[in-house]
Specification:
Layout lengths: L9 H9 L2 E6 L3 H13 L3 E7 L5 E2 L5 H11 L6 E6 L20 H22 L9 E6 L15 H24 L3 E7 L23 H13 L8 E4 L8
Parallel strand pairs: 1-2, 1-4, 2-3, 4-5, 5-6, 6-7
Helix pairs in contact: 1-6, 2-6, 3-4, 4-5
Bound molecules: NADP nicotinamide-adenine-dinucleotide phosphate (NAP).
The site of NADP nicotinamide-adenine-dinucleotide phosphate has 31 residues, from helix 2 and helix 4.
Length: 249
């Protein structure tokens, strides 16, 4: 028996061990690379590929239609049969982009940049990959959202662009889950909140996070896989945290 993480129930580990086919992780950053590494250890029946604008096996920029088309034409045939997709692309800060503390800091360009990656990216990835999917083949399509994208749970304010883009992603993928329930009945779409994890994305903002509440990317990845492995097509469209608990929309 392979090494099982302490946080992973035996049923989840057995589900992962039974998955076979191709797996694509988009966004080979902290959590994405952690997921790719964990999949290689826990799901030996999967062939795991990573993609992203700068890191990963293959180049893919989700904010560019041309990049999505080129990606499909170069690698589409290597992705059959597609068993698992995890979109780990995310944008919170970067050159000329900082989360807003107040209304005066909101910029049209920042809203557009955030929505291009955090909201539209996962949906357009699903659209690009859809021609590879078959009705009688199981698929898990997961995307990393964030609890700060929850409208019901927003008690702090701030971070307009990132919050709104993650909320929009949730609605877009919930809508996709309903469409695929009819057209691809073996597909399971899941939105995942990883918990605060020590990556480049969270680095400037985790000063106040207690050490026991800050996950390593390796731990976050294994917790997310345990949650994902327990999801079935009947549960498609859920928004779940790292501990398997539903997050309010
Ligand atoms: N870390 C946390 O505490 C935390 C909490 C809640 C939610 N999340 C979410 O978890 C996900 C993973 O974040 P992380 O913490 O692992 O951050 P990270 O290390 O900064 O990784 C972010 C990834 O997004 C990719 N990306 C950015 N723009 C992209 C684009 N246009 N097309 C494709 N990929 C793009 C980056 O690709 P390159 O490396 O190739 O540039 C990078 O691999 C994100 O969706 C984030 O919002 C993280």
């Amino acid at each position: 028996m392979r090494h099982l993480p302490a946080t992973m129930a035996r049923s989840s580990a057995e589900a992962l061990a039974a998955w076979s086919g191709q797996a694509l992780v988009v966004g080979a950053g902290g959590i994405g690379q952690g997921l790719a590494d964990a999949l290689k250890a826990l799901a030996p029946g999967l062939q795991v590929h990573t993609a992203g604008p700068a890191r990963g096996d293959w180049r893919l920029d989700l904010s560019s239609d041309a990049s999505l088309a080129a990606f499909l034409s170069s690698h589409g045939s290597q992705l059959r049969p597609l068993r698992l997709v995890i979109c780990c692309a995310g944008l919170l800060h970067g050159a000329g982009l900082q989360p807003e503390k107040r209304l005066a800091q909101v910029r049209r360009e920042s809203l557009e940049r955030s929505f291009a990656v955090n909201a539209f990216g996962p949906l357009l990835l699903a659209q690009a990959l859809e021609p590879l999917l078959e009705r009688d083949h199981p698929l898990h399509f997961a995307s990393l959202s964030a609890r700060v994208g929850s409208i019901g749970d927003n008690h702090l304010g701030g971070w307009y662009a990132y919050r709104a883009a993650k909320a929009a992603q949730n609605q877009l993928l919930r809508t996709l889950a309903l469409e695929w329930r009819r057209r691809l009945p073996l597909a399971t779409v899941t939105l995942l909140h990883p918990g605060t994890t020590a990556t480049e994305l969270s680095a400037p903002f985790r000063g106040g996070v207690a050490p026991e509440r800050l996950f390593t990317p390796e731990r976050a990845a294994r917790q997310l896989l345990a949650v994902l492995a327990g999801q079935t097509p009947e549960q498609s469209g859920a928004f779940l945290a790292w501990d398997g608990q539903p997050v309010p929309w």
